[in-house]
């Protein structure tokens, strides 16, 4: 069973039909909505600020989600996939976003909806990423504006697939 820990009088709230792996850790002021999956060794640490996770979100193996003390909470929209080993820190990710493996999204960043972030991408503090784009690099560079239907389908398919994968583990 996942480690779900109360801290500072906040106990995480988990929605319906969620999968939390046995080695995932969810601490403090965290709300996870319905149909989400938190995979192996992922840590959501809502101790210094809150974390809000939308519906149909998958947080893959070894992801770390945290906030900045009294400054930047972390909010993740609906239908978001966060790839293996990503670090999500004190930022806002809108709906329908794919965050590639090993990416780092820093404090104060705002990611627009319908966005693909390539593996290993670094988005430094306080950057605003527009909707409907694709970016990659360290530091990031927008490589495609106005992504097409094929790209949007990848975002949607990944979110749907992880709901299916989670069912295998329940």
List the SSEs and their pairings.
Layout: E1 3-5, E2 13-14, E3 19-20, E4 25-32, E5 37-38, E6 43-53, E7 58-59, E8 64-66, E9 74-76, E10 81-82, E11 87-89, E12 92-93, E13 97-99, E14 104-105, E15 110-111, E16 115-117, E17 122-123, E18 128-129, E19 133-136, E20 141-145, H1 149-169
Parallel strand pairs: 1-4, 2-4, 3-5, 4-6, 5-7, 6-8, 6-9, 7-10, 8-11, 9-12, 10-13, 11-14, 12-15, 13-16, 14-17, 15-18, 16-19
Antiparallel strand pairs: 19-20
Would you mind describing this structure in some detail?
The protein is 12% helix and 39% strand. The chain is mainly β and 170 residues long. The radius of gyration is 15 Å and the shape is globular. The mean pLDDT is 97.
Gist of the model:
This protein has one helix spanning 149-169, and strands spanning 3-5, 13-14, 19-20, 25-32, 37-38, 43-53, 58-59, 64-66, 74-76, 81-82, 87-89, 92-93, 97-99, 104-105, 110-111, 115-117, 122-123, 128-129, 133-136, 141-145. With 170 residues, it is mainly beta. A hairpin with a 4-residue loop joins β19 and β20.
């Amino acid at each position: 069973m996942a480690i779900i820990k109360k801290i500072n009088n906040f106990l995480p709230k988990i929605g319906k039909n969620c999968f939390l792996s046995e080695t995932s850790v969810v601490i403090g002021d965290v709300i996870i909505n319905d149909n989400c999956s938190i995979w192996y060794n992922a840590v959501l640490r809502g101790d210094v600020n809150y974390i809000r996770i939308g519906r149909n979100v998958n947080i893959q193996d070894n992801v770390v989600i945290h906030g900045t003390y009294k400054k930047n909470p972390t909010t993740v929209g609906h239908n978001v996939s966060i790839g293996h080993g990503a670090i999500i820190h004190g930022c806002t990710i809108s709906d329908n976003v794919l965050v590639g493996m090993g990416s780092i999204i820093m404090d104060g960043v705002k990611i627009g909806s319908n966005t693909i972030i390539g593996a290993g991408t670094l988005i430094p503090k306080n950057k605003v990423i527009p909707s409907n784009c694709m970016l990659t690099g360290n530091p990031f560079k927008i490589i495609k504006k106005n992504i097409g239907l094929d790209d949007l389908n990848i975002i949607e398919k990944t979110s749907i697939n992880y709901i299916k994968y989670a069912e295998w583990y329940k």
